[in-house]
Amino acid sequence: MQADVASTILLPAVLAFIMFSLGLGLTVADFRRIVQQPRALLVGVLCHFILLPLVCFGMLKLTGLTGAFAVGFMILAACPTGSTSNLLTYLARGDVALALSFTAVASVLTIFTLPFIVAWSLAYFSGAAQAVDVPVGMMMVQVFLMMGLPVALGMALRGWRESLALRLEPRFTKVATVLFVLVVIAAISKNWDVARTAFPTLAPLALGLNLTMLACGFAVAWLSRLSRRQSVTLGIETAVQNATLALVIAGTVLKDGNMAIPGAVYGIVMYVGGLAFALLMRRFTAGR
Length: 288
Hints:
By secondary structure, the chain is an all-alpha fold. It has one domain (2-284): Na+/H+ antiporter like fold. The protein has helices at residues 2-24, 28-36, 38-63, 67-78, 85-91, 96-126, 128-131, 136-160, 162-190, 192-223, 228-239, 243-253, 257-284. Helix 3 (38-63) crosses helix 11 (228-239), helix 9 crosses helix 13 (257-284) and helix 10 packs antiparallel against helix 11. It is globular and about 45 Å long. Residues 1-5 and 128-133 have low confidence and may be disordered.
């Protein structure tokens, strides 16, 4: 019963709070920047929504990983960029405005793309019979309620009482970070035996995927002749995922704890690669 309450109520509530705190940092002006710099946005969409799932699928095929763990990695790859990417972008002296804009756009696009990628992954890695039962429409509604609505409410509060929102944002962001850590701990604890056995296999794959996408996002942006600051930003935005959403989709929507393990593992190792990348790029972008 406690596990059911945690997966059906607490996890979605935590995710909604995290997305609300993200919304406090967004304004309509952030979306206007998209029109002003469409090339950077398009490159980001290419890297995050096309390249990331393809690279993840390729690495799964290369390693031979199948079943629930493979689906879990594909769920993670289908999630939007994590809100902490904005902090890493700031540390790396990247383009924070671009990071905010892309985070907002990615959160909206995911409402439509994630359900279909998850349904396909279930059909491919777990068998077509299971995929038939995936409620794509309901999943889209759930993703909207857990992501789109809280972000909109956060933006609405900032538009109504900007001074209050600016005071709340840093505090809520700290709380959201703590909640995220607790969610990861809860997901691992709930499936401790599986996690302990799978970690040696999943952690190298998770770190490899993270480092690969940091490099790919940066390289594609650089080859597209974006600025160094924008290239660094898109490298981070491509690799730092909303692992909390991956845990919610696996544990609440699909009700499979094993599928949540890759998201929990990635949620840990992505900060190792992301922070190292940010600190390295901080010198690379100095004065740019």
